[in-house]
What we know:
Blueprint lengths: L1 H9 L12 E13 L14 E12 L4 E15 L7 H6 L2 E15 L6 E2 L5 E2 L1 E14 L2 E3 L11 H9 L4 E5 L2 E8 L4 E14 L15 E14 L184 H13 L14 H13 L3 E8 L6 H21 L7 E5 L12 H7 L1 E8 L1
Parallel strand pairs: 13-14
Antiparallel strand pairs: 1-2, 1-12, 2-3, 3-4, 4-7, 4-8, 5-6, 7-9, 7-10, 10-11, 11-12, 13-15
Helix pairs in contact: 4-5
Amino acid sequence: MRKLTVTLFFLLPIFLSAQTYPWEIGGGAYITSYQGDLNTPETNLGRYNVRAAGALHLRRNVSNTIVIRLNALVGQLAGDDGTFDEPEWRKRRDISFTSPVFEFTALGEVYPFGVFRFLTDGERRRIAPFLMFGVGTAYTSPTVEWNDQNGNSEIDPVAAQFDKAAETDRFNIVMPFGAGVRFALNTRATLGIEAALRPTFSDYVDGVSRVGNPNKSDWFFNAGLTFSYAFGKRLAPNAFAEKNKPALQPDRDRDGVPDVADMCPDKAGLAKMNGCPDTDGDGVIDLKDKCPDVPGDPGVAGCPDSDKDGVADKDDKCPAQFGEWDLQGCPDADKDGVADKDDKCPGEKGPIATNGCPDLDNDGVADKDDACPDKKGLAANKGCPDTDGDGIFDNEDRCPDNAGTVATKGCPEIKAEDRAKLDRAVKLVQFETGKDNLLRQSYPILDEVAELMHKYPAYNLNISGHTDNAGDENANMSLSERRAYACYLYLLRKDVAISRISYIGYGETRPIASNATATGRAQNRRVEFELYVK
């Protein structure tokens, strides 16, 4: 193949008599689409796996119909089972890959109607279709996402192991073939459109073979735009003309600008406009003038721009005010990306989500409406967080990490069995008659009260002492307070924080039963324990 290329490049110069310039250099921008084990023509022609590529090329014009071309292409290939709705097993298999591709090829181009030339009747052929074919090598290095970490019924583990162990970084033989068409821009420059299929003779372009179909090789397709520029020693001035007769400089629209230099060869125009018309006389040719009948500004494609902000009036939401291009011509005083007409805080920077108003915690609630401007929260909670989701904002929740109720200020409610212990304490805490000395049988129930204090760390405890009405009222008040204090000291010795306990004596002022009977008086002589959230 190398010898053939050398022969075509250097041993056939005798055919150059049909060409004006012997060499062309250029490049192209392409899209690539892979076809293989992770994609097939039946599954939407790979439209989900299109990638970009770029190329450089060198052409040698061998004759009026044959051109040799060296091509270097760099791009990417990709395939993904998961992008297809059918067949169903493909989605379950869900293997994908990406790979760079570096391709070097020698191509032959055949022009059935000849390369660009002037004909003896004065017409210039601008369009030249061609066929191409060649051979070369493409280096690929696929990265495969196997989707078999937890097992996959659509992937044969033995075949997968074989594929994973295979050498997939390799140079593959490619034999491109395709077609294209070139358009003459002038005597040197051409623009082209082309597409080619590229069989690779390898089933590891995608890194997958035995898991898929090892009997079919992978291939890929590319299509794109090219640009070429001719250079080298120019041959006979009319080498492109038939019978070697002098060629004319055609002017189809009779505007005095030759077609070869006329940007609008079929419409009479002005020489200073390269042969194109300018109906409104604003210096923008009609071909590029978006307002061809109204004089405008060349900077906005020939349309009027009253406020001179670079946005045409027809597209300007604020045509009388100088504004920003990316805000459709409207001003933005605080430069926050929100037009003043839509900005609820035009003098302060803010995000679009809050209509241009500051949002310090970035929770989507403007600071002016945010009850917790320095903590990220929910709009439904006026911008305040509710970590435990109990409907009480963290800034009002005494237990922000544990769900509770409004009645308990966001803390968990005390369980019924624990409240029962507090009720029993009222009856079981006993003292020596007429004194504030705790009887030993009171210790177990007070220990349970201490355990409750440790179980409910968000709660405080109020201890209140009470007496019956027997005896002196002041003495009763003092005795009730001393008895509450005795319980207070006991709980402190059980490592209950002093900041969480308080005590008070009410004497005989808060009876719960009649003092007329011995039973009632016994009920009134008590110490009560109340847990509450401060």
